[in-house]
């Protein structure tokens, strides 16, 4: 690891990218501490202390504590993720957007532009509902209202502030992806979770000291976390290697080809996208329902409360759906089969063309089933255990999956730079495979 970091420091471009990414993350964390005007911070803090084990706690985790502070970044990056989900789904449904997705860089820029507009629209709607809901809420103890001066002035100010904060985070993420290292949106979520983990550890120790949690649960929790991280690393780097044979061909008087290679297929090709998308969808109605005191809205919110049967079923369902959907959007067996055929490659025992495409598709479906099952188990079972022993969300499977997955992706990108410049990777035994 130290050798890899030293090698990264000797590559000017990589060093600039890493420094730029760290500066952008520092800007994001600074913005989390800036409160939205018109909020009673003590009353809001007391409310979140009482609702730490609900979906509010999970939303607060994804926003890096911004919702608890009700900062200018309180909505976090979730409106952008929701907009991205909408347009990925529309790519399959609407021919115009599907055509744009096939137009290369120009089409991608157009879809990105539409996604930005949708992000602003979603942020405005969420900001309106949250501002209206906050006006009727008070601290759990006492009569202190969360909103100091209710009214349309507060609502408009809140909508403008939260929407601007989300737009700025979206810009930060895009800048990190383009000029930094790693995926900017994933890194923002990663930074929010990691920044809150020290406080969660201290809180857990205090709970054990106060007798709210058995002391024996701390080593059990630690063992569980290490085990889950090991499982995540194994599956995130695991591959199914399909053997490829290239036919010999004569060019002039030279014989070329005949080499053996392989087609690496990841077990989890979608990475951390499914749990992020699933969490975003599950938090959107719950966030609105938490601030609207209407009977049927409260009934739906209670039905989908964190840890409930229907919440778990829907959460797993969305994870499985996005695993298959993301794989279908990003992986095209027909194109791979055509490229193999053009380059004289074939899978031993499989005819080139459609048979190869069908074989690759069948293998990919089986791998996606395994990957979706793995993600569902990692996200649900540890989180249920965490909920039963009353410790923060930061030790649940979803948080660990995002942290480990984003870290592996980022390290693999850094390694790609070091390998191109003939530096050793972070791991002396070899590069991280499959990323």
Q: Could you walk me through the main structural features you see in this protein, from its secondary elements to its overall organization?
A:
The chain has helices at 2-9, 12-32, 41-50, 55-62, 66-69, 78-93, 95-101, 105-135, 152-179, 184-209, 217-237, 273-291, 295-303, 309-330, 333-342, 354-388, 397-420; strands at residues 239-246, 249-251, 254-256, 260-266, 345-346. The protein has one domain (2-420): SecY subunit domain (Preprotein translocase SecY subunit, Orthogonal Bundle), CATH 1.10.3370.10. The relative contact order is 0.13. The model is unreliable at 424-428 (pLDDT under 50). It contains 17 helices and 5 strands. The two termini are 17 Å apart. The chain is globular. The strands form 2 sheets. The chain has a 3-stranded antiparallel sheet. The chain has a two-stranded antiparallel sheet with strand order 2-3. It is mainly α.
Helix content: 55-70%
The CATH architecture designation is Orthogonal Bundle
Shape: globular
CA gyration radius, whole angstroms: 24 Å
Name the structural class: mainly alpha
**Count of helix runs:** 17
Number of domains: 1
CATH fold-level label: Preprotein translocase SecY subunit
Spatial strand arrangement across the major sheet? 4-1-5
Order of helices and strands: HHHHHHHHHHHEEEEHHHHEHH
Strand content: 5-15%
Largest beta-sheet details: 3 strands, antiparallel
How many β strands by DSSP? 5
Rounded to the nearest angstrom, the distance between the terminal CA atoms is 17 Å
Low-confidence stretches: 424-428
Mean pLDDT: 78
State the CATH class: Mainly Alpha
Say which CATH homologous superfamily is assigned. SecY subunit domain
